[in-house]
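Look over both lines:
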Amino acid sequence: MLRPTRTLGAISLAAVVAAFGAVSVAHAGVHTDSTTACSSTGVCKVFENKSTGAALEAETVGEGKALYVESTAAGGDGIDANGTYIGVIGRAAAGTSGYPFVATDQSGDDLFFIDGDGDVYYTGSIGQFMKTNDNKPVLAYTAQAATRTIEDTGTAQIVDGQGRVSLDPTFAKTIDLHSAYRVFLTPNGDTKGLFVAQKSPGGFVVRETQGGHGTLSFDYRIVAAPSGAANQRMGVSQLPALPHAR
């Protein structure tokens, strides 16, 4: 099982301010040459570089932590980083052998991580804060799927029983051409029925069933696999290498 890199060549913050209710350095496995302790309710120590260099740099040549921060105060925060351009930067080498960001629970179980390819993995669910038309807060959720999909929707028309829908050019360039896309139709009027008579990389033809000659509009939903993801499907074999944060 792969582990995220533990070597940070440099941790560069425009300004690093440590403000904790109580900071413990007697944690198991932590060894310090010096300890800064203060009883102030404000900032305990400030690192400042008025030039373009790093305000604080921490480095380790082993598998240890270059920087370890712990707040033992009830409701205390571990790190508060504030940047006028970027607050926090996490780096990892390209590929899946490194992880620029890993979040775990206190037992070390993975909750959320990003691999070196930029793929995001998480456990739990995604809740989105939204507001209704009358400005009341609600919580929305994302749908789950067994395969990777990219979708498009729209409205078109058949005239005298037939119509053609051209795929959006940008959408057409993002779908995987090695697998067929799916089309779902909903007629917006009385009809004997509609069916997809023909599909091509550029669009599809819709006809009325039983040789009908109706003229009406219909809604459509196109579901396709993203380019390069035709064979990706839910399964244990598709699980990525999990990070093991210590």
Observations:
- The two ends are 13 Å apart (CA to CA).
